[in-house]
């Protein structure tokens, strides 16, 4: 019995050390948390800047990619405000990518050590060299050089992720989430390029927004996991509550999906010359509202139940229900006012924040076994 108690004590001590290992060297925990929050905020902001591109018909403000014009990386005066808005969103993509890279490096330093960081930097340098060579070769062969260059960079990120994740580390969950965000940002650059090259095809533009929203959720998940101890987890809510929460997720996904299709069918598809997807925007607006109201009702049930049962996640459900209610209010308002640009933009950003809040709620359904 004494040996058993000693073993359990040692096991708990190991878990505590594993949780503390996220800090790495002194001060690393605070730096990691700061960059994790910056990553989350940047992912939300780029949805706003991307929305501004779409809502001001600036999607083709830069006619080329990755250059803005065939002769210039930056917009020229004759391109006016549309070129500035589109180029600003592209610049924001670079900022998002650099922050995501910083999160990866800080995470690897904290959970695996300096060697993992140096190997990741090696893959980054190799990726840049490969991308330059691919760009030169593709240009000489009259192939889509920019797209192939971005693909080479994405390939380097994926190779770096595989290399680091196959090595032992104390918080693999954090490393996986950090790599997903960086790979997602790189993939988004490729998708954004195809959006321009396809003359803003509605489905590609919609997919571009959807991936951005998912990256907001992943950065939110990273922040949640950063604040909890590693190890086995157990459900902290009744089974029926967990099932209802996941059903609510389906309603949220349906609401967002139909919202994307509605926007793609409406007057804000990125450029006045863009051909819409052929759907009736008026009909889709009604279809979009149906799962939205169901979502509101389900979240209200969850929030009331969590309050009555005094569940630990009741505060986050309050955040979620407030976000959903505001989202519904803005949706009704914009529909009645004829879809003004500012309200559509707010609606797009609120959708990402609602999805992020739901992500937190789902992750709060379980707690560490020792908690």
Characterise the protein shown here.
This protein is mostly helical and 371 residues long. It folds into two domains: 18-231; 233-371. The protein has helices spanning 2-20, 28-55, 80-111, 114-140, 145-165, 172-197, 202-226, 239-265, 281-309, 314-336, 341-363; strands at residues 233-235, 366-368. Strands 1-2 form a two-stranded antiparallel ribbon. Helix 2 packs antiparallel against helix 11 (341-363). It is flat and about 65 Å long. It starts with a helix and ends with a strand.
Number of β-strand runs: 2
Number of self-contained structural domains? 2
What does the main sheet amount to? Answer: 2 strands, antiparallel
CA-based shape:
flat
The proportion of residues forming helix, as a percent range, comes to over 70%
- Identify low-pLDDT runs: 1-21, 23-27
Distance between the termini: 23 Å
Side by side, the strands of the main sheet go 1-2
Query: Strand content of the residues, in percent?
Result: under 5%
Secondary structure topology:
Elements: H1 2-20, H2 28-55, H3 80-111, H4 114-140, H5 145-165, H6 172-197, H7 202-226, E1 233-235, H8 239-265, H9 281-309, H10 314-336, H11 341-363, E2 366-368
């Amino acid at each position: 019995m004494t040996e058993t108690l000693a073993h359990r004590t040692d096991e708990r001590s190991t878990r505590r050390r594993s949780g503390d290992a996220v800090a790495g060297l002194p001060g690393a925990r605070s730096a990691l948390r700061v960059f994790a929050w910056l990553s989350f905020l940047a992912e939300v902001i780029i949805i706003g800047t991307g929305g501004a591109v779409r809502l001001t018909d600036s999607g083709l403000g830069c006619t080329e990619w990755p250059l803005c014009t065939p002769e210039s990386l930056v917009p020229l005066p004759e391109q006016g405000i549309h070129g500035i808005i589109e180029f600003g969103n592209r610049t924001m993509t670079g900022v998002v990518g650099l922050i995501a890279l910083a999160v990866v490096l800080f995470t690897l330093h904290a959970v695996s050590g300096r060697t993992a960081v140096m190997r990741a930097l090696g893959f980054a340098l190799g990726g840049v060299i490969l991308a330059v060579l691919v760009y030169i070769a593709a240009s000489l062969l009259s192939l889509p050089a920019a797209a192939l260059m971005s693909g080479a960079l994405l390939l380097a990120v994926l190779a770096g992720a595989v290399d680091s994740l196959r090595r032992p580390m104390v918080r693999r969950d954090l490393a996986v989430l950090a790599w997903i965000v960086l790979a997602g940002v790189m993939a988004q650059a490729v998708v954004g390029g195809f959006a321009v090259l396809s003359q803003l095809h509605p489905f590609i533009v919609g997919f571009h927004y959807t991936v951005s929203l998912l990256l907001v959720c992943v950065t939110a998940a990273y922040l949640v996991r950063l604040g909890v101890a590693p190890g086995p987890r157990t459900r902290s809510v009744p089974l029926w509550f967990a099932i209802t929460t996941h059903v609510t997720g389906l309603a949220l996904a349906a609401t967002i999906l139909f919202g994307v299709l509605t926007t793609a069918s409406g007057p804000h598809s990125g450029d006045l010359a863009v051909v819409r997807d052929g759907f009736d925007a008026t009909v889709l607006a009604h279809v979009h509202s149906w799962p939205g109201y169901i979502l509101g009702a389900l979240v209200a049930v969850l929030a009331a139940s969590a309050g009555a049962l005094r569940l630990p996640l009741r505060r986050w459900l309050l955040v979620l229900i407030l976000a959903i209610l505001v989202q519904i209010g803005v949706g009704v308002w914009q529909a009645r006012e004829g879809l003004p640009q500012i309200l559509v933009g707010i609606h797009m950003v609120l959708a990402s924040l609602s999805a992020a809040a739901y992500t937190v709620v789902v992750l709060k359904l379980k707690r560490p076994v020792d908690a």
